[in-house]
């Protein structure tokens, strides 16, 4: 997976295939949130059926200080891949993305995906200096990764906080929001829309928006009209078809799509997509039919 992300021709081809096959309105750059780790020289691999696994967890101040900086010239393969993609896309937008600092820190501290994040949260509560060192490093890595994508041709970027739903609102504001704001602020001068998305973060929507987002991504757990109300009716939304619906009969999926669109009309603007990624076992023909339906082919 990581090798594919760092091979420009392969990354470009994988990015472009959904646009060619399904006719979606934008491409999402093929990458992974731990690609910047790999590029910087941090030992990490994506293990099948597990996810990102670190060579050594980072849990001390000394380990945090030893983390290597990510320099823009270490992302030359990303620049090359995005150039290939934008040459073919023409006026079709390319969405770049990066992992938010909390999610990156969770992988560093746990050493692998976790269901409870006990090590991460224990360090967060008990060792503020080490927490700050790790989150600051992660924020700078994400900022460098996003800036590189924008300067190379991405016209929208998304900050992706996979694991922020493990936090209470108070903990998010105290321990995480400043670092996500640091990332989003680092690209504010480049004048591209910034989407902020988290999984199971319905209670955090306002705080995540206040980190600096122009658009809030909403997963399938919160209806879009409810999310819009929580955000005061002022923020464009992205979301939120339930990926499980891809496995239902077409009339069931169609009704769910209609419901998402109708609820999204309450917001100032709405980008329709899945609430959280395409399951690997989903039928691609269903995705093609979904896109055609939304485009007006009833």
Describe this structure in words.
The protein folds into 2 domains: 2-217, TIM Barrel (Alpha-Beta Barrel), CATH 3.20.20.210; 241-298, no CATH class. The chain contains 14 helices and 9 strands. The chain has helices at 2-5, 8-22, 35-40, 61-66, 76-89, 101-110, 118-126, 128-152, 169-175, 177-186, 205-210, 224-230, 250-264, 284-294; strands at residues 27-28, 44-47, 51-54, 94-99, 156-161, 194-198, 215-217, 237-241, 270-274. Strand 7, helix 12 and strand 8 form a beta-alpha-beta unit. The protein is globular, with a radius of gyration of 19 Å. The two termini are 37 Å apart.
What percent of the residues sit in helical stretches (DSSP H or I)?
40-55%
Spatial ordering of strands, largest sheet? 1-4-5-6-7-8-9
Reported CATH architecture of the largest domain? Alpha-Beta Barrel
* Computed Rg: 19 Å
From the spread of the alpha carbons, the general shape counts as globular
Distance between the termini: 37 Å
Instruction: Characterize the biggest β-sheet.
Output: 7 strands, parallel
Determine the strand fraction and express it as a percent band: 5-15%
The secondary structure category is alpha/beta
Count of separate DSSP helical elements: 14
Helices and strands, in order, run as HHEHEEHHEHHHEHHEHEHEHEH
Give the tally of structural domains. Answer: 2
What is the strand tally?
A: 9
Assign the CATH topology of the largest domain.
TIM Barrel
Rounded mean pLDDT score: 96
The first-level CATH class name of the largest domain:
Alpha Beta
Could you name the ranges where pLDDT drops below 50 across 5 or more consecutive residues? none
